[in-house]
Specification:
- This protein has helices at 3-7, 26-43, 49-58, 68-79, 92-100, 124-131, 138-156, 160-172, 187-190, 193-201, 212-217, 235-243, 247-255, 278-281, and strands spanning 82-86, 103-107, 175-178, 181-184, 206-209, 228-232, 271-273.
- With 291 residues, the chain is an alpha/beta fold.
- The mean pLDDT is 94.
- It binds 7,8-dihydrobiopterin (HBI) and fe (iii) ion.
- Fe (iii) ion binds next to helix 6.
């Protein structure tokens, strides 16, 4: 299946390819192991327990790149989710269709040794190490399906931009409040060496209580660390926010309002931590536009 064919694919099944697990080289499995060990050292004590339980339940470890077929046997048993292999980023419609059907699309390529710290396109380490462990948690699994179902409605109702922001500040870079303190759950933090260190050690970013309107109106920069992180009380809070809101009505309202900045604290924000902004102080003009 050529990359072009995927981009013009109409149905989700057209985007699914074979993982080709037997084709991975020892060096690629070793790259996985290096990334796995380094991330776990950084995340221990700072990532939510549900994430660590998921890694263990799926048998994902430093030995090498997981084989989707065997990982899916335990994933399906727990929440009915499965990981399917795709060639890379796919169009929004098949993407949302997959999530609505409890299928998580994961890339099959792994970054090179030179790209250990950052790469443009999500690779199998970002998709599987970052996103998949929490799909073993029933409340998070329900949220991901609801997000997919809403995404299909958003395409019709011109709301995908707001879904992308919701994705960014929860699924990719979300934090969760636990009795023992604030913990990481976002895949983009879990799979990134730099961002995980920044979240754990650097006081530059604001921590704001999750609020659907605030998140949907807050832009983000795709190529840098976050100026604000949003903190949920539970994964169920995310599921309820989607279930209990007339999102099509909200899309219209949000479209009429100006985007909010992740740098500023707004009237009505639930400020759990006011960041120092130090990381950003010496920043030249932004490289990319606010999404
Ligand atoms: N495709 N493989 C893949 N992974 C994604 O996270 C993804 C995608 N296509 C579209 C998309 N995300 C965005 O449209 C949503 O996150 C809003
Ligand atoms: Fe991702």
């Amino acid at each position: 299946m050529s990359a072009h064919a995927v981009l013009t694919a109409r149905s989700k099944d057209d985007c699914i390819i074979d993982q080709g697990w037997s084709g991975y080289t020892p060096e690629q499995h070793e790259t996985w192991g290096i990334l796995f060990e380094r991330q776990l050292r950084t995340l221990e004590g700072h990532v939510c327990q549900e994430y660590l339980d998921g890694l263990q339940a799926l048998g994902v470890d430093a030995r090498g790149i997981p084989d989707f077929a065997s990982m899916n046997r335990s994933l399906r048993q727990r929440t009915g989710w499965e990981v399917v292999a795709v060639p890379g980023l796919i169009p929004s419609r098949p993407f949302f269709e997959m999530l609505a059907n409890r299928q998580f699309p994961a890339g099959t390529f792994i970054r090179t040794r030179e790209q250990l710290d950052y790469l443009e396109e999500p690779d199998i380490f970002h998709d599987v190490f970052g996103h998949v462990p929490l799909l073993t948690n029933p409340a998070y699994a329900d949220y991901m399906e609801a997000y997919g179902r809403l995404g299909l409605k958003a395409i019709e109702a011109k709301g995908v931009k707001f879904l992308a922001r919701l994705n960014w500040y929860t699924i990719e870079f979300g934090l969760i409040r636990k009795p023992e303190g604030i913990r990481i759950y976002g895949a983009g933090i879990c799979s990134s060496f730099g961002e995980a260190r920044y979240v754990v050690e650097d006081g530059s970013a604001h921590h704001l209580g999750f609020d659907l309107d605030r998140v949907a109106r807050t832009g983000y920069y795709i190529d840098d660390l976050q100026a604000s992180y949003f903190v949920v009380d539970s994964f169920d809070q995310l599921f309820r926010a989607l279930r209990d809101t007339d999102m099509v009505e909200r899309f219209a309202r949000w479209r009429a309002e100006p985007a909010l900045s992740p740098f500023d604290i707004e009237e009505g924000d639930a400020v759990l931590r006011r960041g120092s902004g130090r990381y950003w102080a010496g920043f030249p003009a932004r490289k990319t536009a606010l999404k």
